[in-house]
C-alpha cells in the first residue's frame, strides 16, 4: 500500500478493497489530482467540467501469494482504472500527473496493459485514454483468541512405574513376537519367546490403555500397573 506522509504503512487489513480505495485517492490527492470513486462516465459533448474517476477493476494474485513467515496471510493486488474526461485539446490532463507520480513510486505499480474492449463495453462508455495501477493488499486470516488461563497450573503427581507382564494365547501358551504399546505414554515393547514384555514410565494406580498387534492380532486392553506381572490373554489360535 502506498505510504506517504500521514498515511499508514502496508499492514493486514480487515477491509482490503476499501483500504486500497482510500490509499489510491489519498495518493492522487498528494500528487495534486482530485478524483472521485466511481466508473468512468461519458459527457454530453466531451467538453464538460474536468473529471477524474477511479474504479477498481479486479483482484489479482500477487507474485508471492503467501507472505513469508506468515502462513495464514495472503497478498493480492487491486487493479484500478483511472480515467480523465472533459479536458480539451492542448490542455495538460491529470493522466500526465498520474504517470509522473507513479514512476517514482515503489508501491503503486503501473500496469502496462491496454484496457480491453470488453471492459469499456461492460462499463457502458466509449474507449478513452486511461491509466491502470495495481495496489498490493495484505490479508490475514483471523485466528480464534486462545482461552484465558483463569487458575494456577496443576501438575499430576502420580508416580511412574514399570509395567511388565505376558501375552498368552489359548491354554496359557506364550505368544512371542507381538508388539505391546501404551500410546498415551509413548512406550512400546515386543514380547520375547516367553511372551514377556516390559513398559517403562507408566502411571501407577491409573488404568493404562494397551494395544497388542502382530500375528493377526489387534487387541485393546486396560490394565493397572502393580508390582505383580499382568497376564494378557488372547483367545486365538496361531496358524
Percent of sequence in beta strands: 35-45%
Averaged pLDDT, please?
79
How widely separated are the two ends? 72 Å
Enumerate the strands of the largest sheet in spatial order, edge to edge or round the barrel. Answer: 1-2-3-5-4
Low-confidence stretches: 1-13
Number of helical regions: 3
CATH topology of the largest domain: STM4215-like
User: Helix amount, in percent?
Assistant: 10-25%
DSSP, total strands: 12
CATH level 1 class label of the largest domain: Alpha Beta
Give the ordered list of helices and strands.
HEEEHEHEEEEEEEE
Question: What structural class do helix, strand and pairing data support?
Answer: mainly beta
- What about the largest sheet? 5 strands, mixed
What is the domain total for the residues?
Answer: 2
Principal-axes geometry comes out as rod-shaped
Any chance you could write out the topology, listing elements then pairs?
Elements: H1 16-30, E1 36-37, E2 51-67, E3 70-85, H2 94-103, E4 109-110, H3 117-123, E5 130-140, E6 160-168, E7 179-182, E8 187-190, E9 196-203, E10 207-214, E11 217-224, E12 230-233
Parallel strand pairs: 1-2, 6-12
Antiparallel strand pairs: 2-3, 3-5, 4-5, 6-9, 7-8, 7-10, 10-11
Task: Please supply descriptive tags for the structure shown above.
about 240 residues; mainly beta; STM4215-like; Immunoglobulin-like; 2 domains; five-stranded mixed β-sheet; four-stranded antiparallel β-sheet; rod-shaped
Short structural description:
With about 240 residues, the protein is mainly beta.
Amino acid at each position: 500500500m502506498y505510504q506517504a506522509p500521514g498515511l499508514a504503512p502496508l499492514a493486514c487489513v480487515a477491509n482490503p478493497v476499501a483500504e486500497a480505495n482510500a490509499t489510491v485517492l489519498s495518493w492522487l490527492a498528494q500528487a495534486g489530482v482530485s478524483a472521485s470513486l466511481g466508473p468512468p462516465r461519458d459527457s454530453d459533448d466531451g467538453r464538460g467540467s474536468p473529471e477524474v474517476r477511479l474504479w477498481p477493476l479486479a483482484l489479482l494474485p500477487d507474485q508471492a501469494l503467501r507472505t513469508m513467515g506468515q502462513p495464514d496471510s495472503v497478498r493480492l493486488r487491486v487493479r484500478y482504472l483511472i480515467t480523465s474526461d472533459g479536458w480539451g485539446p492542448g490542455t495538460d490532463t491529470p493522466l500526465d500527473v498520474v504517470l509522473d507520480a507513479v514512476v517514482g513510486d515503489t508501491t503503486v505499480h503501473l500496469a502496462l496493459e491496454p484496457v480491453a474492449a470488453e471492459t469499456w463495453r461492460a462499463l457502458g462508455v466509449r474507449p478513452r485514454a486511461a491509466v491502470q495501477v495495481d495496489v498490493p493488499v495484505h490479508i490475514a486470516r483471523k485466528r480464534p483468541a486462545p482461552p484465558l488461563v483463569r487458575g494456577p497450573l496443576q501438575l499430576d503427581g502420580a508416580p511412574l512405574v514399570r509395567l511388565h507382564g505376558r501375552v498368552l494365547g489359548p491354554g496359557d501358551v506364550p505368544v512371542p513376537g507381538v508388539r505391546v504399546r501404551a500410546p498415551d505414554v509413548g512406550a512400546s515393547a515386543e514380547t520375547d519367546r516367553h511372551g514377556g514384555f516390559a513398559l517403562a514410565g507408566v502411571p501407577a494406580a491409573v488404568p493404562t490403555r494397551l494395544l497388542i498387534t502382530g500375528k493377526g492380532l489387534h487387541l485393546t486392553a486396560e490394565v493397572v500397573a502393580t508390582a505383580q506381572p499382568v497376564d494378557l490373554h488372547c483367545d486365538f489360535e496361531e496358524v
